Amino acid sequence: MLHQAAPPKPPKGKLIFAPGHPVSDASHGLQRDQPPRAAQFSHSKLRRSDLSPDPFVQFHSWFSDPLLQAAVPETVNLSTASLPNGRVSSRIVYLKELDARGFVIYSNFGTSRKSRDIATNKNASLCFWWKPVERQVRVEGVVERVSAEESQLYFDTRARGSRIGAWASQQTSVLEPRSSTTATTQQKADGDPKAAAEAGQEVAEDEDEDDGRAALEARVREVEARFEGQEHIPVPPFWGGLRIIPETIEFWQGRESRLHDRFLYTRIGGDLGQGGEAKWKIERLSP
Fold first, then answer.
1. 36, 63, 74, 160: least CB-packed within 10 angstroms?
2. Where are the annotated segments for Disordered (predicted)?
């Protein structure tokens, strides 16, 4: 009788422990399930001779891989950190441009967490993960705001609803439930215990219907009315492009046994996009 090995039980108190994939053992013509093992990386390899001397050219080559067409390769993790506390925050954004100076994303820079971080610390990083080809690209550098003229060019390519949304959203600010706001307003205005009680009852009935979304949708309606019949919508002054000017760019290719190929480009001279060609040092890193 063939006995299957039971998967290891997670240590007490751990909700997730060493997740992996089932492994089959076909030795002696038997199919035996083994405890899950972490996935291996075996898609490809990376050698120094494969690399372009220009990391932007190398990035474009990887970004354009046909295997990534259905993988949304522009999806990227942007990390920023505030000073003096050093707290780091990350979020998924979309790469929208790669130019002679660096990598450009677009977002709200009026009320967002990233805007507060950048106000105290101009350093930021990007991390791309492309699972179909088992590759990462890590970018570290300093940031600068893209001009309003450049931002408008991209803003005009967005769907109208997205342009309206950019104006309406005070990104990361708290959206209060409409029910609580209504109750407070009525109680103060009426000064009537009976009316206050009725308002309180309405609040209880409405709490499950609105969790703050109504306030956002009200702003959207206001902006829609403001730009009604107007095809051209100006880019908001608090919204636009952020360019990450790289100091280092790492190209990571997964390999078996976690012995990955990693190559680091470090800028050692030149001023990106300012008429002088940037110079880069390339080094292989230990996995």
1. 160
2. 1-46, 169-212
Q: Among 243, 258, 267, 284, which one carries the catalytic annotation?
A: 258
CATH code of 48-169+236-285, in short, is 2.30.110.10
Strand partners, 81: 88
Q: What is the pLDDT of residues 63-117, one digit of tens each?
A: 999 999 888 999 999 999 999 999 999 999 999 999 989 999 999 998 899 999 9
Task: List, as one string, the DSSP characters of 141-196.
Answer: EEEEEPPHHHHHHHHTTS-HHHHHHHHH--TT-----HHHHHHHHHHHHH--HHHH
Distance of CA 67 to the CA centre of its chain: 21
Question: Which phi and psi (to 5°) does residue 243 adopt?
Answer: -105, 125
What are the φ/ψ torsions at residue 178 (nearest 5 degrees)? -60, -35
CA-closest candidate to residue 89, choices 168, 175, 172: 172
Q: Could you tell me where in the chain the CATH 2.30.110.10 domains are found?
A: 48-169+236-285
Catalytic residue check, 258:
yes
